[in-house]
Every structure is written in C-alpha cells, then in structure tokens.
Amino acid sequence: MKKIAVAIDGPAAAGKSTVAKRVAEILNFTYIDTGAMYRAFTWYCLEKGLDCQDEKACVAVIPEVKIELKPGHIVLCNGQDVSKEIRLPRVSQNVSYIASYKDIRLALVELQRAMAETSSVIMDGRDIGTYVLPNAEVKIFQIASVETRAIRRYDENISKGIPCTLEEIEEDVRRRDYIDSHRDFAPLKPAADSVLLDTSFMNVDEVVNEVLKIIEQKMKEKVNA
User: How are strands ordered across the β-sheet holding 80-81?
Assistant: First the structure.
C-alpha cells in the first residue's frame, strides 16, 4: 500500500492528539504531534526568559532550537525530554502566540513535511489539511463545545498531576480559539474537502471508531475514483 497522509485539524483541546495516537497505533501509521512541536518551541522561549508576545525576539532563536519526536510520545528540545514540561499552564497560555508567527511556522512545517515523506502518517494540528499537507488523502476537522473541551483538558491535566482550575482552562481555550482563528498566516479553519466531526457527546472509543470509518470510506473512494 502506498503512503497515506491523514490530517486531523481542530481547535484547542478537541481531543485531536488522543484520537490520532490511537488511530495511528491501530493502523501502524506514524503519529506526528505538531502541537507538541510548537509547545516545545514555546517552552524554549520561556526558559530563555523571552516574552512570547515579542515576535522578533522569538523568531531570532529559531536556529537555536532542535525539536525531535521519539517513540512513546517523547518530545525532545535540544536533546532534553520536555514531554511533561510542555503541558504546563505557562506553556498552554503562550503557545498560540508562538504558533502565530510565520517564520516559526515555516521552520516547523518544513520539518513536519519531511516526516510525512518517509511513511504513512497521521498528523494533527490547526492547519494540516489547509497548509501543511494540503494533498492529504484524508482530512478531518474535529470540533467540540468550549465547555466539553475545557473539561477534557482539565481532567487530562489533573491525571498528569498538572495543577489548574476548570475556570482557567475554559478561559485559555476561548482565548486560544480566538488567536488561532484570527492569525494572519495559516489560521485555524476547515479545509474545503475535510469531514467535520463533532465529538461533544462522544467518548474516545466512539471518536476513534468514527475516524477509522472515515479513513476507510475515503480510501475506498480514492480506489474507485
């Protein structure tokens, strides 16, 4: 079977990464967590003491940052395992600024596209189907209500021992929605040929099964076209 690219886009805390990981395991595809890459870059900027709303200062450190994704969902930044650190509230509150800067996006998109050249992949993010992998065979835009997404992210953080409040998470989700959808370069929006999937009232297993059905149907359509 030839290489297949699956793009799963959607707003913050829509459950994209959880679903993409599961589907990748089932299909034996490579999972590429683009959000983790932007989070790692954000973490580095914060560690350097930079203001993440200062585009010029953040763009200037691009040559200093090397981000790697390893099996087991390990994220390395310049060789350091930052898998847990990038999920802390301080990173969540700043990542949308970093992800809105064109030069940083261009640098990370180049890396993401290179990863997709080597094997069948599932990639999730904000602009995978519209910009990163516009020719992906399968495109899904996964949504859920703000309240549902906030609860999911809150439960995830608590399970990982990350301190937070539900009110803080909901405010962060709304703020990130606005920033992601209003940025000038590659904003959050569904691709014209994407399948809209509302997961507000679905559990993880139900979403995974639905995504698998969508992939199967899309591949059948490609074969019969």
Answer: 67-70, 74-77, 80-81
Residue 132 exposed, middle or buried by CB count within 10 Å (0-12, 13-18, 19+) = buried
Helix (H, G, I), strand (E, B) or coil at 58: helix
CA-angle at 136, arms to 63 and 183, nearest 5°: 50
pTM, whole model, 2 decimals? 0.84
Instruction: Write down the domain spans for the chain.
Output: 5-218
User: What distance in Å separates the CA atoms of residue 98 and residue 167, rounded to the nearest whole number?
Assistant: 23
- Compute φ and ψ for 182, nearest 5 degrees: -110, 0
Helices (H), 89-132: 89-92, 95-99, 102-116
* Homologous superfamily in CATH for domain 5-218: P-loop containing nucleotide triphosphate hydrolases (3.40.50.300)
Per the CB < 8 A criterion, the answer to whether 8 and 19 are in contact is: yes
Per-residue pLDDT tens over the stretch 113-124: 998 988 899 999
